[in-house]
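Give me C-alpha cells for this 81-residue protein.
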Amino acid sequence: MEPGHVCWERLARRVAEQHFVLKERREQEFLELSAEERLVKFWEEHPHLKGRIPQRDVAAYLGITEVALSRIMSRRRKRAE
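Here you go.
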C-alpha cells in the first residue's frame, strides 16, 4: 500500500487538531459556564440560527432540558423589560 500524499496528511492533521480544540473548548464551557451563560454565548456565536432551529435542539446542544431552557429564556425576557 502506497503512502498518501503529504498535502492530504497535513489537511487531515489540521482537521483533527481543529476538532480537538473545539471539543476541548466545549467541554471547558460545560465546566465553567452556567446554562444561561452558555445560551448567551451560543446566540452570540450563532445569531443566524435564532428562530431557525427548534428549542429542543438548542437545549440538547447546551446540555439542558427544554424546560430549563424555557425558564432561562423567560427569566431573561423579564429582566429585559
